Amino acid sequence: MVVEGNVGTTSPATPSHLHYGKENTVRGNVLTFGGSGQVAVSRPEPHGQATVERNVLLGRSAPAFVGAVGDRSVARFGVVSDLNLIWDTERAAAVLPRPVADRRHLT
Known about the structure:
The protein is mostly beta strands. The chain has one domain. The chain is built from no helices and eleven strands. It has strands at about 1-5, 5-10, 15-20, 25, 30, 40, 50-55, 55-60, 65, 80, 85-90. Strands 1-4-7-10 form a four-stranded parallel beta sheet, with no helix packed on it. The model has no long low-confidence stretch (mean pLDDT about 80).
């Protein structure tokens, strides 16, 4: 599935929620001011779950990516984040993506 060209804002939870699926792509979206974060990944999968690329993720004291605590932490999921602009309005500087040559899974 491809989720592209959307604007999601001021959601009580997250503007985007990945739940099930294989090789999903979230690209070219503006996702802002989710209550708990901008992108939720709630279910671990044994395969590449999603590529999140070329998005604007804007938050206020909330992480860009959120999952469940413990074994279901989003860091353990098959999500690749590439070329996203991640900004927290409560911090002084942008959190810039790694150069393309240094792309890695969120681990």
